[in-house]
Amino acid sequence: MSWLGRAGARLLPPGRRDWAEAVWAEAGEAPAGWPRLAWRAGGVRVIAREARMVRWIGSRVVFAAATGVAAWSAWPGSAISHAATARADIIVLVVLLAGLPLLSRWLLGPPGNRTARRLRAGCYAAILAIMPAIAVTRLFLGAVPRGGHDLHTFHVFQGLGVPGTATAGPPLKVVALLVIAACGLAVILALTARRAPVAPATLAIGAGAGPVLGAVMYAVDPLGVNKYVTAPWLRGTMTDTIPAGRAQYLVALAWIVLFGAPLAAGLLAAWRCHVPDDPGQAAAARAWQGVAAGLVSNSVGALFVTVLGTGTTALLVRSAWARDVLYHGQHLTASAVYGRELFASQNAPRYGLICLAFPVIGALMGLAGAGVASGLTSPRPDGGRPPGPPGPEPLPDQPGGRRLADAGAGQDGLPGRYDGEGGQGPPGLVGAGLGRLR
Amino acid sequence: MRSRREFSPQTLLVLAALCVQPSEWQHGYALASQTGLKSGTLYPILIRLADRGLVEACWQDEPQPGRPRRHLYRLTAGGLASATAALSAVAREPTGRPAAAAGARQPGGRGVAAPAVR
């Protein structure tokens, strides 16, 4: 068994091999049988933990499983007329999802911190959730109704004599969507990479503002930016006309959040970031943090509303329950229902425009917020300290480039504790843990 | 206060065990027996403590015949100070029982007295 320990130790960085060998050297002290086996199992755990194998393998297994499920559920059958195009863009998207992180790692390094990893995971989950939702709408658009009111409505909207083909979509549209997805993914990967000069707090601020924007946008336009299908629960609401009742306030709030959320995120990120003493470099550093916060805020918001919007559309065409929720209390004929489903499905690709426009708005507003922050924190003529929060002391670096964490972080399922961050256990935890000694 | 937030309960167990005879080198199996921790939990704690300079480690100079060399551990001066502060903070906890909280388990299952806390 000792050869197994030595082989396992070779998986570790040189500075850690002694520890793996130490566990194995002690195995002979444990009583033969299960205790010794348990001791060696602990040694395997140490090797796996120190080699980062668990995280490495786990993240890849989860990614492969999630991508496989998403691709399988989005894979077109023979029922639609543009199956070959759909298959091609699924394959390209999967290749982008798998390949871009490798490219990013090579150019800019791995994700820099826990916030970055979570942000990446959230974006990947969003993209994987959008894939089957878009596929459902495509399938709906590509399938010709068998008859009755639906066929009549289909012909009215789609054009006579071209059943199913009108929705195939030109390859240019598919390519444009893939380019938008690739650019968005590249931006997120670059901002979250270790060598990118983006503070973890900036990512956290942006990621926190994004869902607010997404939720408000979804409340206004749950079925996309189309006047025929918007806000079914706000009767009479259309985004391109003046809405009535409370809806007008919601629409106003959406506009405010679209521009205000990245502005606030940029201001906050620029205000609290650490900057060099040189005023020029300080302004540049603040501008960069502001742009990054605004970009992350609106990118997350765009992904959020796209996931919810395309998901709602997919549910609309698949589930009578979803139709009842969306159009509760409204008496709609079968033809009207089919028409709304058709409009909503055709509207789904417009989320690509949201994913393109929102981040641009976010970057600009974040820059504006950074400008405001620079104005607020500029040195006073009398030489006094500008207003702003005192910065925390920088954390010391470990030899491996990681921050020092609690020595017992993660033991037995307890969360790791980083200096200066949350995640503290309840006060009684220490006493409870030590109480086992009694 | 800071120390109590700094170490997990398992880490405090290890520190308490190392504090019993801080000048003596101890090996992993003895520490596991004293603390009741499994090897997969104990060694990552020792690794983190060594990374922070609180524990020093070395290989046994003269191994016993027929047995592999053992890896030995003891607290550094800084480690002893940190451990003492952390354990005294735990001992002052209103809900804890100081003597038991600061002690460690002996192979026989009985708690040992905590080191003197100044």
Q: What does this entry show, briefly?
A:
The complex is a heterodimer of chains A (438) and B (118). Chain A is 65% helix and 0% strand.
Supply the number of helical segments of chain B: 6
| Residue windows where pLDDT falls under 50 for at least 5 positions of chain B | 96-118
> Biggest interface and which pair forms it?
A-B, 51 and 49 residues
Q: Based on helices, strands and strand pairing, what is the structural class of chain B?
A: mainly alpha
- Percent in helix of chain B: 40-55%
Radius of gyration of chain B: 14 Å
CA radius of gyration of chain A is: 27 Å
Distance between the termini of chain B: 16 Å
Largest beta sheet: strand ordering of chain B: 1-3-2
How large a portion of the residues of chain A is in β-strands, by DSSP E? Answer: under 5%
Low-confidence stretches of chain A: 391-438
Strand content of chain B: 5-15%
Label the overall shape of chain B: globular
Structural class designation of chain A: mainly alpha
Oligomer: heterodimer
